[in-house]
């Protein structure tokens, strides 16, 4: 476990928990949306002792990097579509965005942590990433982020949301392949689209070097966090994503 100094609870504090495949990241913000406390734990110790009996004005659980499927709103067969794409799962969560529904597999510690807090809200990285990209103005755009040997890509064409998908990606070359595949499949002009990654500054520099001769300039999401430092480290990438999605959920 890694955490800051002892947490002092205030009922106006807001708790946001990011559930990754092998770790849980806790962020607590005060009433002014300023980060007050954070903690990273493994799945063997899922709820920090510092938070036992704490009361929060709101609590949000963000499932990040889990298998998912998209479908139309009010799609009665969304669970079937998920099964066809990802296999059977008994712990599916269904969430609706503005224009589509998301079926995603809940983390193995999802229920355990949900039972620790009152009035918890559930969401997913896909929903938050869609909401974030929908607030941008470019008509043609591609956004991506990497975690746990996967790349997640969201794409827009002529102002319409076109795609959210995950692909296996163990290195920068595979990241390049899947981004270019999406650009080609959606017939986007690589020299004219808005292109952004959610990453540390270190990984952004790596991505810039591989895309610079193929796609328009690659921007990095504006994230004010210690984890946005110049580094190339998978753990730092997940810490940054947890911070980023916490900001989106506030």
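^ structure tokens above, recovered residues below v
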């Amino acid at each position: 476990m890694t955490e800051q100094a002892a947490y002092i609870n205030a009922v106006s504090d807001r708790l946001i928990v990011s559930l990754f495949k092998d770790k849980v990241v806790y962020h607590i913000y005060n009433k002014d949306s300023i980060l007050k406390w954070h903690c990273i734990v493994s799945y063997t110790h899922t709820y920090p002792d510092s938070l036992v009996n704490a009361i929060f004005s709101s609590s949000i659980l963000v499932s990040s990097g889990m298998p998912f499927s998209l479908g139309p709103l009010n799609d009665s067969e969304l669970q079937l579509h998920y099964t066809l794409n990802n296999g059977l799962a008994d712990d599916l969560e269904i969430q609706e965005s503005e224009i589509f529904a998301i079926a995603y597999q809940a983390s193995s510690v999802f229920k355990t942590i949900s039972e620790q807090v009152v009035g918890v809200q559930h969401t997913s990285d896909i929903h938050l990433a869609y909401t974030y990209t929908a607030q941008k103005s470019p008509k043609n755009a591609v956004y991506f982020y990497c975690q746990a040997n996967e790349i997640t890509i969201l794409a827009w064409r002529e102002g319409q949301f076109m795609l959210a998908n995950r692909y296996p990606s163990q290195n920068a070359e595979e990241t390049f392949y899947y981004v270019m595949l999406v650009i080609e499949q959606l017939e986007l002009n690589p020299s004219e689209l808005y292109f952004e990654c959610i990453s540390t500054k270190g990984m952004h520099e790596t991505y810039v070097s591989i895309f610079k001769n193929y796609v328009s300039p690659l921007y990095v999401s504006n994230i004010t966090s210690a984890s946005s430092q110049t580094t190339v480290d998978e753990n730092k990438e997940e810490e940054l994503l947890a911070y980023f999605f916490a900001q989106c959920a506030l």
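The first strand starts at residue 2 and ends at 3.
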